[in-house]
Each structure stands twice: as structure tokens, then as C-alpha cells.
Batch of 4 targets.
Target 1
Amino acid sequence: GRYGRHLGRLWHAAEDVSVIEHGDAGAHLWARALAGRPILAVILAGTRDPLVGERWAELVLDPRADLADALHERLVKAGGLALARELIVRESWSARRALRVLPDSRYRTALDRFAADLARAGFRRSDVSSAES
């Protein structure tokens, strides 16, 4: 259970960081605002900069591309992605540590590798070509 809880947080944070850095950040934020579900990076950035929370509330009430772009800009300036990466590291470590109670097996090794690889996905550089990935 602990492994799953930590892996779930890790998955969400890594996915959001990856989409924001390598995909269409505005569209991702807009889609999450339509669902009324902020991403972890927004929540974490809001602890540093109250304007992130205000931008999020504006976007939820009036989902527009320009508001999503303004939120993205504020999110980056507030260090939301760096905070999300810190969370990725913590959750990966916690998930992998939770596996230690299990007997050594190929399944445990696969779960450990999965948590480690998922964490690395949150740190993929945008200047790396797809051939190097």
C-alpha cells in the first residue's frame, strides 16, 4: 500500500512536469482547470507565490488560453517545477524504500526499477534529441 501511494504521487508529478516542459503547458493547465483539479506543481508553487493560486482560480472560473499561459508563466517563475521535482525524488525514494519489506524477487526488482525510471522521466532534458532518449 505504501509503495502504491508514493508511486501514485510520483506518477502525477512526473507526468505534469513532463507535459509542462515538453508538451503544450497551456493546454494541459487549461484541461486540468476545466476538471477543477490543479496539478501538484501549481499547489506547490502556490506555497511560494500566492499569485499562482489567484491565477489558478481565475483560470477555473474563466478557462481561456491567455489565462492558462499566464498561469504557466507564473508557475515557472515561482519555481513550481523545481518543487515538483523535489517531490518526485522524495516519492521515488519512499516508494523504493517501501519495497524493502518484501522478499528479494524479480517482481520486487521490477517495481523498484519502475519507480526509479519514472522519477528519471521527471528530469528528462528538453534539449536531448529523441535518439538519445
Target 2
Amino acid sequence: KGAGALADAGTAPDGGALVLGIGLNAHQTTADLADLAESATSLAIEGHSVDRLALLARLCRELDRIARAPEERRAALEEWRSRASMLGELVEVRSVGSPVLRGVARELADDGALVLRTASGDERILAGDVSLYRGWEGVTRE
């Protein structure tokens, strides 16, 4: 994992608000991430040298572009789906105050929810820490 996002939405009669927090590992080294070596990486570790301020400016421009037009949001969702490496994989989802869920990451819904196929049926995941689950030897993904 090289990045993460947290979102908090609120609604009111006169509209709503979304607060989005994005964390991106840019300059961390393998020594910085030693305790997380199996699950974390950074742009530097992957061989990319970046100017963090320029990266922030580009990210903000892209978010503004996507927020302005519905067709841009649809295109961004399709690109996200095409790059979602966990789709079709066995995953584990940890959310504060909820039991751990395990299943197959089936799809990303139009509203951004992860659809997880579990033993008891599909679950929609709107928030949580998703990671590959390696403890299911011989389990079918269908």
C-alpha cells in the first residue's frame, strides 16, 4: 500500500460537505517502513523521485476537475475500477467498531463502495482498511 484516503461526509437541508484526507507515501525508505515491509511501499521505494508540493498541486487540480463534471466522475470511477488490483482477490476488511470481514472483492459500485462477496452474501463496504488475505488455501473465488 502506497496511499490511503479517508472521507467524512455530512448533509444538511441546505447542502452537504465532504472532507477528504489523502495520505501518500512519497519519500519513505525501506528503513522508514521496516515494520510494514510486507504491506507498505512509497514512491521513492518504487523508484520515483517527486516534489511533494508539485504532487499536491497536481492532485488538487485533478480532484477539482473530477468534482466539476459528472462525466469526469464517471471516467475517474472507470479508471479506478481498471486499476483496482484487489478485485477478484480474497481480502480482509477491518473497520473501527465492526467485526473483521473476509471475502472476495467483487466490484466497486457506482457510489464507490467495495462489494465484498462473503459466505453470508454480498456486503457493501463504505469504509475500512482492505488488505489481501493469504489465509484461505484452496478457497474458490467464484
Target 3
Amino acid sequence: KTSVLLACAVKIGALLGGASEEEAQKLYEFGEKLGLAFQLQDDYLDVYGDFKTFGKRIGGDILCNKKTFMLINALNHATTDQRKELDEWLSATECDEEQKISVVTRLFTEIGVDAMARERIGEYFLQAKQCLSNVNLPEERKRLLGEYALQLLGRQS
């Protein structure tokens, strides 16, 4: 949802600004890749972020068993023992919230989904930059979009 919303906003702006359909589509692809990077970073920061800088409770996705990139990849790459432990926490109807966040975060790290997420964020960002470089606009206008992308992804843990 996030990536399509951003992509549509960029494309609409391009069309309203007089861009051709082809150039608007290139900008759509830029917005889509940037939105994917942003959403994945949001999922990452929900697990590994700092409340003071992230601005929302850490571990909320874990507590509601949200099917994020992090959880899906943890389930797909877990050893038998790790999968069993994850499944126990996912099926628990009542538990200590802080303990669940702590254990699931530990499992995510052991499985390596933190590194997978950081790598994928970087890949999406590079794809977004490539899409932007393919747009036939003056460099100054592309520079502003590039700066926006950096600001959007500049949120820190």
C-alpha cells in the first residue's frame, strides 16, 4: 500500500506538471521503489528502532504478529528449533509483551533477517535512484526528488 500510494502521488504530480505518460511511468517506478524501501525500513525500525527517534512503540508489529518482511523471512529461514520457538510465541494468546518482543527480536537477529532487511532496503533505494536517473528532467528537478528520497529514508533507529 505504501509504495503504490507514493508511486501514484509522484505520477499524478508528473502528469499535472505536463510530463509525458512515459516519463510519468518512470517517476511512478521511482516512487514505487522508494515506497518499498520506506515500508521495509519502517518494518525494520519497528523491531530495531529507538522509541525516542522513531516516534512509535518498538515491537508493535511483533505483538500483533504482523506479517512483515521480518516475520515472513524469519519463518522461512529459521532452523527447526527457531521455528518451533517462533510458532510458540505467535500462537500464545497471553504473554508478557516485553518478553515476547525480546525473544522474537533475538530470533530475528539469530536468523539474520535484520541483515536481510538492511540489504533489501539498500537494493530498493538503488533501484529508485536508477529509475530517477532514467527520467528526462533537468538535473536540478531530479536532484530535489533525490534529496526528498534521502530525507524519507533518513529516519534513524
Target 4
Amino acid sequence: DTERVAVGGHSAGGFSSLIAAGGLLELNYLADECANGAQLNDCEFFVPYLQEIAESLGLDAPPEGLWPSVRDERIDAVIPMAPDQVLFGTEGLGQVSVPSLYFVGSGDQLIPPDVYNTWFPTLGSETAYMVELENASHSIYVNSCDTIPMMVDWGAFGVCADPVWDRNRAHDVIDHYLTAFLLWQLNGDEDAAKIFEAGAERFPGVNVINK
């Protein structure tokens, strides 16, 4: 049903989903943070290539402030999981107006709590919730090791396992809130919306924050 569309993604995919939903880059902010000593992967992945990125968007030079929108107007809701957010600066996420559901882990070392606690409130979405899994790592969204044993063979056990959470249990929790959010936002199911209310029953180790 192309009239009811949601987009989501994990990490860089979460960042991409926010761009598709209307978020605007503010890469001069990122460049300033990097110049001031910020230890971010984005300093290496983006700052040296600002001119190339600008040209890929048909621009002669990198904009001084917010970059132009590449929003897909078909998107009705966005579900970023541990999204990279520094690239939106202080104002870029304010351009996201569709309903938003963040998933984050308080044990995430790549996108730590101070990052999402800073940027999540800047969303322009009138309806915005954040589901936090206590002590979960950045890769909690990846399939469990029993379904991708090659990760163990490659010595990347930490990608498909979590120090605290049972991966399958975490995915059940994520699916629970994700499904309810989509039923609410795309199907108008008000019963599904009730699990986001302040007095709703919560799973142990799960926090639901309303922007």
C-alpha cells in the first residue's frame, strides 16, 4: 500500500531514514565539532568529502547552514534505530515532521545516551517516542548469532550478541512497539496507541519516553 509508508533503519540506516523523512544536514556544524577535537567516525567519513557530497546534490559548494532537503514526501512515519544524529547539527532534525519512533540502547558506545538525549528533543515531529533498552549495545538490532554463525567464525561475536540482553527477547520487545506504532500511525488503530501512554504497563528494562 504505497499510500501508507514508513521508513526505518539502524545506525547509518537510521540516519538515512531521518534524511528521507525530511531531516536536513548541517555539515558545517559537524566540521566545527571535528575541528574542536570531537572523536567521531563522521569526522573521517564526511568532513573530507563535503565538496563531493555537495556536487552529488547538484550544488557548487557546501552550504553554510542547512543543506537542501531530499525528503521523500510519501513517507508517513519514521523509525530510526540508534541513528547517527550529529550530522543534523542543532536545527536539521527540526525539519522532520512525520511521527517518529526511536529505538536506542543506554549501553550504546557508538551513539551514547548523551547523543540521543540531546538530539531526540529537537525533532519537529508532533508525535515522537523513544524506546530505550537499558544497557543494550549498538548492535542489539542485528540478528542473533545462531542465525548468522559466520559472525562468530569471523571473530565478530560482539556484533550478533549483547552483554546484557538476550537478542531474541530484545527483538520481541522491538517488534512489539514497532508493530503497535505502525498500526497506530498507518492504520489509525487507537487501541495500539495505548501502549505508549504514560500509565501503560512496561517491560522490565524498557523505558518509553515521549518527546
